[in-house]
Design goal:
2-enoyl-CoA Hydratase, Chain A, domain 1; Rossmann fold; N-(1-d-carboxylethyl)-l-norvaline Dehydrogenase, domain 2; 3 domains; eight-stranded mixed β-sheet; six-stranded mixed β-sheet; 21 strands; about 10% strand; oxidoreductase; ClpP/crotonase-like_dom_sf; lyase; 6-PGluconate_DH-like_C_sf; multifunctional enzyme
């Protein structure tokens, strides 16, 4: 029998090597067809008496990334489409679909012949769960091998036996840690946790896997053997009595109770370890079905899995323009941002000419990459040769003539219109005809900057976030005259450096910073009302924000807020900034020199390490303090999220952001907007626009007109619309179909 996604070669010892290699895909993923074929392979190998055992591996450089988008989309359309018609039947169907993998892997485990997973590369999610159901697991020690059950990061959990097999192999604490954080394991760590049996040189992988079978590997999982004991003894032991009361508390500390998927892991492990294996799998299947039905799972999978991949693959790239593979770009301005942009570009194998006012400033910019490379080599993340190669791609210089053969130049000089004008003119005297000019400005509208250019249709914004090496998001900004080619090249570049782009129209603050400043402004309001600063910061964390607004303000610099507020007043008039905010920030910056982390004092104090930062006690004297018991933390949480979400809704209404996927992904990757919500617009859609509008009205009555719902929101509430319905990102595809 032949298969579309697998090849099978049986050797003289009767060991069938099953190689998973999906045609037309760069990575193996689980689809309905793949599952059907695995099912058929189990049947065929069981039936074939010549087959003594199976080694399961991948023909690609990675083992598998887990489930496929279309399969996941299918699950949700099942939920949405059929639930209304016949809820019971829809539930049953979802339960069955959710269990498909569970019982197929169980079939592998109980097929009667030994299976060994030969893990040759990244092995994630369902693929690792399949490996866990094999009787043996051998992993290559190549650096590229990463093992994880990362489902919790997209709002679900390892629901194909993961929550049952991992704690029956590893100790419970490690198992919980691995699954509730979705952490990535090296093969060595996986072995230490007892999750793989052997770690071998890449070229020994298949031999070692086959040897396990030849050595008489038993085709029975440990938990199917009589007398099996859970590592550490299970739930009713003194050690477990210490672990389990603490586990939910630790989880709550880490997640503030916002992630049903994470909590379900605890429940599955706790309940499952007390049950026979098949019953335990069923318990897992029930919780999995339940979590799949949660708003959090739906929104997180949509934004963090589906939309992120779609945007990463260039969902917004204009059609009909040939994809470019950039080989050399220019970065002008080798300061804080430019230096790091050069680094991430070279790390993607693209040559960079890094220009500053003089050789010395340019070399200082390259030194940033030298330090980053030295750190990575020191930590074993890069080999010495890889580090040298990366650095050889960056040429620091003051000579603009080196831009004569680049296809893109990124300008990252001072945030000053005149400096940017001079630099633009200088660059354009040498830039090749077709090359694209991108500005990394964070506050100056692109349309205005493009007036300095002779070819505004080739002028675009490519806005990076700091720290550039870590931040996954890049905002691509279209000026009024920006043409399709500029957008296409910008997106090709962002794709090459492996960041996720969102494409937004021109506006003050673009998308991300507009939202961020709302968050920070709400905290100013709270401070002025006398809410203790610690409550503001904690409420933000409880709402799911990674960083409190005051801490964030310290990171971006308090004097930068002051600059931006002054610029708003100059450009838009006095009413654009609340006078109380200006007074607060003037006091912080002008009177107290508290400019943020960069000068060691802002809303927090930053003592020398290893001491930790702490809120500056002097803040208490600014405004009469409310008593903690008089402050409603629930309302604080709402205000912080609602003010951001409202701003996101405004950007859609103004046509700044045009695709809800970008608002959502941009908010999570740009400033960590409570990921369990799926992002700013999913937050609104998740509770329903009508509920959101009512919430805004309640908040506006007590906390100011900035909470007033906008005309669009009111209209949508009336019509019962959602953002993903009204601004359907797939409308063009649907029309075509
Ligand atoms: P920076 O002051 O650290 O760096 C600016 C660099 O430009 C300096 O090295 C300076 O020598 C150089 N420069 C100035 N005039 C020049 C000229 N005429 N020719 C060549 N080089 C010149 O500033 P930065 O923080 O890196 O910001 C640069 C740009 O990036 C700004 O437009 C800023 O708004 C934007 N940005 C900054 C951040 C951030 O977090 N700092 C984030 C996103 C975008």
């Amino acid at each position: 029998m032949s298969y579309k996604n697998f090849t099978i070669e049986t050797d003289a010892d009767g060991i069938a090597l099953v190689t998973w290699d999906m045609p037309e895909k760069s990575m193996n993923v689980f689809t309905e067809e793949v599952m059907n074929e695995i099912d058929a392979i189990v049947d065929a190998t069981v039936k074939d008496e010549a087959v003594k055992g199976v080694v399961f591996t991948s023909g690609k450089s990675t083992f598998s990334g887990g489930a496929d988008l279309t399969m996941i989309r299918g699950m949700f359309s099942l939920l949405q489409g059929e639930q209304a018609a016949d809820p019971d039947q829809a539930m049953q169907k979802l339960f069955d679909v959710a269990g498909r993998m569970t019982w197929l892997w169980r079939k592998v485990e109980t097929n009667g012949k030994p299976w060994v997973a030969a893990i040759n590369g990244t092995c994630m999610g369902g693929a690792f769960e399949l490996s866990l159901s094999c009787h043996g697991r051998v992993a290559s020690n190549a650096k590229s091998v990463k093992i994880a059950l990362p489902e919790v990061k997209v709002g679900i959990f390892p629901g194909a036996g993961g929550t049952q097999r991992v704690p029956r192999l590893a100790n419970t604490q490690d198992a919980l840690q691995m699954m509730t954080t979705g952490q990535t394991l090296t093969p060595q760590r996986a072995k230490a946790m007892n999750l793989v049996h052997q770690v071998v040189e890449p070229d020994q992988l298949i031999t070692a896997a086959k040897q396990m079978i030849k050595d008489g590997l038993k085709p029975v999982a440990p938990w199917d053997e009589r007398g099996f004991k859970v590592p550490g003894g299970g739930i009713w032991t003194p050690a477990a009595a210490q672990l389990w009361p603490a586990a939910p508390a630790i989880l709550r500390r880490e997640t503030a109770g916002n992630y049903p998927g994470a909590l379900a892991i605890l429940k599955c492990v706790y309940e499952g370890l007390q049950l026979p294996f098949d019953t335990a799998l069923k318990v897992e299947q029930r919780y999995f079905t339940q979590v799949l039905r949660s708003t959090e799972a739906f929104s997180m999978i949509r934004s963090l899995f589906i939309s992120m991949q779609e945007l990463g693959k260039g969902a917004r790239r204009p059609a009909g323009i040939e994809k470019q593979k950039l080989t050399k770009i220019g970065v002008v301005g080798a300061g804080f941002m430019g230096a790091s942009i050069a680094y991430v570009t070279a790390a993607a194998g693209i040559a960079v000419t890094l220009i500053d006012r003089d050789e010395e400033a340019a070399a200082k910019g390259k030194a940033v990459s030298e330090k980053l490379v030295a750190d990575s080599v020191g930590k074993g993340r890069l080999s010495k040769e890889e580090g040298e190669k990366l650095l050889s791609l960056i040429t620091p210089t003051a000579d603009y003539a080196t831009l004569s053969d680049v296809s893109l130049v990124i300008e990252a000089v001072f945030e000053d219109r005149q400096v940017k004008k001079d630099v633009t003119e200088k660059i354009e005297t040498v830039l090749p005809e077709g090359a694209i000019f991108a500005s990394n400005t964070s506050t100056l509208p692109i349309t205005g900057l493009a007036e300095n250019s002779k070819r505004p249709e080739q002028f675009i914004g490519v806005h990076f976030f700091s720290p550039v090496e870590k931040m996954m998001l890049t905002e691509v900004i279209l000026g009024e005259k920006t043409g399709d080619k500029a957008l296409a090249v910008a997106l090709d570049y962002v794709g090459q450096i492996k960041k996720t782009p969102i494409v937004v129209n021109d506006t003050r603050g673009f998308y991300v910073n507009r939202c961020v400043f709302r968050y920070i402004n709400e905290a100013y309001d709270m401070l002025i009302e006398g809410v203790p600063a610690a409550m503001i910061e904690n409420a933000a964390k409880m709402a799911g924000m990674p960083v409190g607004p005051l801490s964030l303000n310290d990171e971006v610099a308090v004097d930068l807020s002051q600059k931006i507020m002054k610029a708003s007043i100059a450009d838009l008039g006095e009413n654009s900034v609340k006078p109380e905010h200006m007074t607060l920030i003037d006091k912080m910056v002008n009177d107290l020199d508290r400019r943020g982390r960069k000068n060691g004092k802002g809303f927090y104090d930053y003592p020398a390490k290893p001491a930790k930062k702490s809120l500056w006690p002097g803040l208490k004297d600014f405004y009469p303090q409310k008593k903690a018991e008089d402050v409603d933390v629930g309302v604080l949480k709402q205000r912080l999220l609602v003010t951001i979400a409202l701003e996101a809704a405004r950007t859609i209404e103004e046509g700044i952001v045009t695709d809800p996927r970008e608002a959502d992904v941009g908010s999570i990757l740009g400033f960590g907007f409570a990921p369990y919500t799926g992002g700013t617009l999913s937050y609104i859609d998740g509770m329903g626009v009508k509920t959101f509008v009512a919430l805004c009205e309640t908040l506006a009555a007590s906390y100011g007109d900035h909470f007033q719902p906008t005309p669009l929101l009111k209209e949508m509430a009336e019509k019962g619309e959602t953002f993903y319905g009204r601004f359907d990102p797939y409308r063009a595809e649907k029309k075509a179909a």
